[in-house]
User: Fold these one by one.
Assistant:
Number 1:
Amino acid sequence: MAQLARQYAKSFQKAGLEKIVLSVKSSNVVASLAAYRHLAAQDSWPLHLGITEAGGELAGAVKTAAGLSPLLLEGIGDTLRVSLTSDPVREIHVADLLLSATGVRRRGVEIISCPTCGRTTSDLFRILKQVEKALEHEKRPLTVAVMGCIVNGPGEARHADAGLAGAPNGSFMLFAKGRLLRRVPQKHAVEALLKEIQKI
Ligand code: SF4
């Protein structure tokens, strides 16, 4: 695959084309990784990354992350496309998350949330979904924590730009800019968090 791409690029060059970007997308993660690494080691043409026909939203995002994260972390790649059988807006969202997680570019909110356990005092899954939806279009590179308990939650919430940590009786401790602000009941927790985020 990489060999073929190089041959094409060289023939384009011979024909006088200069602005060449190579892409060796495949739906096979291992083959794609090998091809992109080969091209990056051999030549200096810009590379367009992608795992093509990756699948539905969840499976496709995982497959794309498996294939592209190693490359991005190695500094390989100049542009990328996430290909999901889903709304193109979701493809852009996954691309933003991927670039943010690999430290290539921060745009939008990074959410720190726990998996929940016996210490969880609230309906954290629902709270997290509400927070994610509300912040989906936020472009500022913020970190927001949504944590389930008062034992391990405050640490993460303090280190985030804003955060919630579950407290007794389903309430939450509200944090912003490293400070504990107050305790809020569960039904007002998301609204209170969003208000603090607006102030940042
Ligand atoms: S933060 Fe608390 S509720 Fe969440 S997983 Fe950790 S211990 Fe459990």
Note: Residues 114-117, 119-120, 147-149, 151-153 surround iron/sulfur cluster (CB under 6 Å).
Number 2:
Amino acid sequence: MKVSFVDLSKQDHAIRQQLQQAVLGVLERADYILGGDVDELEREFAAYCGAKYAVGVDNGLSALQLILRAYDIGPGDEVIVPTHTYVASATAISLVGATPVLVDTDMRTYNLDINQVESLITPKTRAIMAVHLYGLPADMDEVRALASAHGLRVIEDAAQAHGATYKGTRTGNLGDAAGFSFYPAKNLGAAGDAGIVVTNDPEVDARVRAFRNCGQYVKGRHDLTPYNHRLDTLQAAVLRVRLQQLDQWNLARQRIAQVYSELLAGAPVELPPPTYEDRTHVWHLYVIRTSDRDGLKAHLSQKQIGIGIHYPLPVHLQPTFAELGYAPGSFPAAEQISPQILSLPMHPSLTDDEAAFVAESIRAYFR
Ligand SMILES: Cc1ncc(COP(=O)(O)O)c(C=O)c1O
């Protein structure tokens, strides 16, 4: 049995006609740049998150970068961000000229270790970027409490956690501003690159809106640096159709995670964090750990099971961040897990049989 890591085509099966109509609608209206579907998606996604504003942009990295620009965070400023994350979280900070100050991993959640954040705060710190990695919200009460005690902004990197909740509130509404990615394989993905900024702050909304469209608050007058980070209308049209499926897709992911966890119970691998009562996990990724990761990976690949590693190197060991000056050994938890982690196939159309085959193949390897 071949099991795909993701299957974007199968996932769209039930909505293919709606998607075609949405795309044809844009082709007919030819409102390709900042067309009606962009406005509608912004309204619908803000409402989905329970927030006031959303601004569509060209990808998740831009979303994070423009939030930082909206807050005038730049050279001389520091932003605290976990080292165990996709590189884009830290890249956004360095692209605006600020310094990413990295923090180690909480093994309980694989998110930032809140107990290590306060000691990293300096007079230069402007924000904490909390990443809801793999689909599980970070410890947001503690993040917000620290931020408010020190006058810092809270930025959510919600690229992997569309629809996840923390104490009943959805991601996108847990900090001052949130950046989402709509990379195709995300829980909500476009038919190409796309992203969105979500906030309750009218000034962030206005500044991100201006930054994404050549620095214009009003047409023809370029008040801010004239970047182009617009979201394509075609992508917005596709996203509006898929947004209607998001809750159902997340439920399917939760069911598959449960199947994995049941079938892998007692196997000699570390399962993902348990379900916490105060937050929901939307299982962008189902990540197990084993000290024999590369052996297991080769075994599963040979069985035609799609797997992934998120991520092979923490940010502080990525060559592009060498200038930050972190030596190996700086972040023991992140360095312990990165050679051990393995992401199993996870997508809403994965069947129970496929999940069972994956679990059985893992058990067979260790027998
Ligand atoms: C945690 C995280 N942050 C940021 C990004 C950047 O998003 P994008 O690839 O849309 O630029 C991604 C996704 O790739 C991500 O997983």
Note: DSSP finds twelve helices and 13 strands in the chain.
